[in-house]
């Protein structure tokens, strides 16, 4: 995981939105599509770049994929990770709107009985 690849990946607005959304949760692609109002193709393309940079990890569950921040990014780039967490906590713009949309989204709709999209959701 090279710094230049991490920064390139985070330098694209949609990839940064996906990263900010995943900072403290695991989501399936369907949920990311819904919250960010993006097509499956668009989400897949951006997730692929985030995975190549080592920022996002993927776990398959049945026919669905669940995504989270990789432990390598969280630990290897701890200051960057912490900075992103702080930015999201104080943001009054798009990242806050994305988090509100996620919090108001009751079901991920992925129909996977093992789906973990709701695990870290606050009640």
Automatic annotation (TrEMBL):
Q: Which residues form a coiled coil?
A: none
SUPFAM superfamilies, per this entry? Winged helix' DNA-binding domain
Question: Does the keyword Transmembrane helix feature in the UniProt annotation?
Answer: no
* Protein name as catalogued: Winged helix-turn-helix transcriptional regulator
Q: Name one GO molecular function term.
A: DNA binding
Q: Which residues form the HTH arsR-type domain?
A: 1-92
Q: Which domain of life is it from?
A: Bacteria
Keyword annotations for this protein, in alphabetical order, are:
DNA-binding, Transcription, Transcription regulation
Q: Do you know which InterPro entries this protein is assigned to?
A: ArsR-like_HTH, HTH_ArsR_DNA-bd_dom, HTH_MetalResp_TranReg, WH-like_DNA-bd_sf, WH_DNA-bd_sf
Q: Which CDD domains match?
A: HTH_ARSR (cd00090)
Origin organism is: Culicoidibacter larvae
Q: Does the keyword Chloroplast apply?
A: no
